[in-house]
Amino acid sequence: MASKYSNSAPIKTVIVLVQENRSFDHMVGWMKTLNPDINGITGSESNPMPTGGPIFFGSESAYVDPDPGHSIQDVFEQVFGVEWAKELDAQKMRPNMQGFAKNAERKMKGMSSTVMNGFRPESLPVYKELVAEFAVCDRWFASVPGSTQPNRLFVHSATSHGLTSNDKELLIKGLPQKTIFESLEEAGCTFGIYYQYPPPTLFYRNLRKLKYIIRNFHQFDLTFKRHCEQGKLPNYVVIEQRYFDLKLLPGNDDHPSHDVFEGQKFIKEIYQALRSSPQWKEMLFIITYDEHGGFFDHVPTPVKGVPSPDGITGPEPYNFQFNRLGVRVPTIFISPWIEKGTVLHGPSGPYPTSEFEHSSIPATIKKMFNLREFLTKRDEWAGTFETIINRKSPRTDCPEILPEPVKLREAEAKDEAKLSDFQEELVQLAAVLCGDHMKDVFPRKLVESMTVSGGADYVKGAFGKFLEECEKARQNGADESNICLPGWDCNSDNNPTAPKFKSFASKLCSCIGFHIHTHRDGGTTAHNHRPPPPTTPSRAPPRPRQIHSATIIGHFDLNNHVRMASSPATMTTAAALRCNWRSSVVVVVVGSISFPNCG
């Protein structure tokens, strides 16, 4: 894991942890009572209720259940105070931050109180200590005014490639954009992803390459503390949480309805491992949140002067232009090179409208590690935070042990609850990694009745299968620059595809749409058909071949092929098929069949 990178700057290792679904005011707004320089809560902040009266922001947050709304349309109402409509132009509207209570109350009676309350500093003792000892940024926004996935994508690539919510085709193929991981590799720097479940970083297509799976992904529980102790952390460290909330293994990502007590425990564990590392004096640890989760924040969201990262427009009905930011989220910086009680406000550039947002991470990494180029127009625009390193020498008085967290949830985890949207996406990602995306239960039927515990079991097994396939491929000498998935040729660039068929007839055609090759011994093998990509845009599609006289009786296997057991014979126009997508079956087809693109 040794890095070829070297420079005279004090920071050589950056650690990034992205927690889930909490706004700045909700988590750390009341820290203003401890440090008046923080743009936090004064107690005068309010929202109108549907009945007309105001509800003031309080300090009574504890355990939050259920999860407030945070889709694009929810955030629109929260920010602008009116419900989303296609004819409304956000660029011409004022972000008054007056729609949180109304949006929450419409979702569920009484939820306005949930979103209009924050935590007292003593309820979050780990954050209280970190904010006092190091630095907090009080003007850091989510990259997208929407949900988890697009915002997480911005953290490491400064774009979501047009994604505003779950998209099964993009999920299967993987998001194609270049990431900060590849930029670091090009510069001779190292990176590592320490995961506890299938890491969301595998939504990036390039990170599915065999070389990265083998060398750059590490199981957190087995390797993180050891790498800290041995001084072997890479230049760029990403830590992934437990995203499933189980009775025996609670979620520690802070996503409602998970207990923030578990998140505080997790951050304490990470900090203390870093603090005891021989690399401590070269570290910067960044804690942020993907998005606000529907909770109130009083700072207006920037809606003008924000560039689209790549010109890609989001899907209907919103057609989002990626030209405004999301709601403000907590961001904490930890390093012995930071003075106590530092508050980082807005950036001074590089553009007059620049802000701190998730793209600030790749933008700053580029500057710190002298990387060659920006990823998109967004990280080129985003403010950078290297000035947070504001000392000439590292401190020696940084706390070695953080306070014990306060337990806020009395009940057990609801592991029989329905999956959240993000958990569904993780299950679907796991299905792609283990090959289950080829089944017709993907994507919706796979998750529609799945519980949190069932989802956790599924992703654990699926990811384990994926890692086994990768190890087999490595041992067999596969090209490490390619992607290896079950049923794939690891030495080809073919992409997995989702089944597009729903009716019995289309399933029938899909089951029998295979190539037939004649061997020298007179036998035949029929292969599951995967049409090749056109070699040029002008290539004419091949004419379908008609087989009018054949009887096909063979063994159908989803993984690859059918071994034929008979020779051609006269057929009548009829067909019979039993197609079980969970196992190999016997297929009997009689009729006139069209085989497109058989060559």
From TrEMBL:
Is the keyword Nucleus in the record? no
Q: Name one GO biological process term.
A: phospholipid catabolic process
Q: Does the keyword Hydrolase apply?
A: yes
From the broadest rank down, the organism's phylogenetic lineage runs: Eukaryota, Viridiplantae, Streptophyta, Embryophyta, Tracheophyta
User: What is the designated name of this protein?
Assistant: Non-specific phospholipase C4
Record the organism: Striga asiatica
Task: Report which superkingdom the organism of origin falls in.
Answer: Eukaryota
Pro residues compositional bias, start-end: 531-544
Query: What would be one Pfam family of this protein?
Result: Phosphoesterase
Q: Which PANTHER family match?
A: NON-SPECIFIC PHOSPHOLIPASE C4-RELATED
Region feature (Disordered): 521-545
UniProt record similarity statement: Belongs to the bacterial phospholipase C family.
List the molecular function annotations (GO) for this entry.
phosphoric ester hydrolase activity
Which UniProt keyword terms apply here? Hydrolase
